Amino acid sequence: RLFEAGAFQEWPTLDAGPYFDTTVPTNVTGLVGKSIQLVCKVKNLGNRTVSWVRHRDIHLLTVGRYTYTSDQRFEAKHIPHTEEWTLWIRYPQKKDSGIYECQISTTPPIGHSIYLTVVEPVTEIAGGPDLFINKDSTINLTCLVKYAPEPPSMIVWSHNHEAINFDSPRGGISLVTEKGPVTSSRLLIQKAIEKDSGLYTCSPSNTHANSVRVHIVNGKRKL
Question: GO CC annotations (predicted)?
Fold first, then answer.
């Protein structure tokens, strides 16, 4: 846990001053481009104010319901007569990762830190970078798109830098795509022949492509 020295300040004192509800998550993971909310819950606030500070540059972002930064992606959110003070981050980027501290204006101020990790979409092909497939068996390539704000509108497969034609005379080529938090695209090529060897690339519409090299072998691969 970070900043253990101040941990004792997060618990209620005998004078029933303000304190933090520490059941609120302190590790938050968000996606690049998708709005993130960092929530701070304060008990017995009284006439004090709640601020959000970014540790990376000790930058005061919000005070109460007012936003103090010129970066318009950040905004303070609070519903009157509730205990939650929220820092809203629109269009987050990887560089926004780090520690954000919710502070109460006591003397001295007390704080509660939340660690934010912003991740960007990743394209993976299972079993890569090289796959060895027996001749006449089925080539089964699975491409996974993770951490995308929304599923890709399209995933294009190519073989040796040429888009795969599912209506080609070769036949036996099919594609199964399932969209969700993790989108999968499975390319199936039946009765593999030597010409099916080469570089296969999965190209989602909303993130980087990834490739795998397929080797068609006669019988079992010799180690």
Answer: neuron projection membrane
Supply the range of the domain harboring residue 166: 122-217
Name the domain boundary from 101, 119, 137: 119
What does the alpha-carbon distance between residue 157 and residue 186 come to, in Å, rounded to a whole number?
10
214 token code pair: 């397929």
Residue 112 lies in a domain: yes
pTM, full prediction: 0.66
What's the pLDDT band for 113 if we cut at 50, 70, 90?
very high
Task: Give the Cα separation of 140 and 125 in Å (integer).
Answer: 11
Q: Are residues 168 and 195 in the same domain?
A: yes
Return all residues near 63 (Cβ < 8 A) that are at least 6 apart: 49, 50, 51, 76
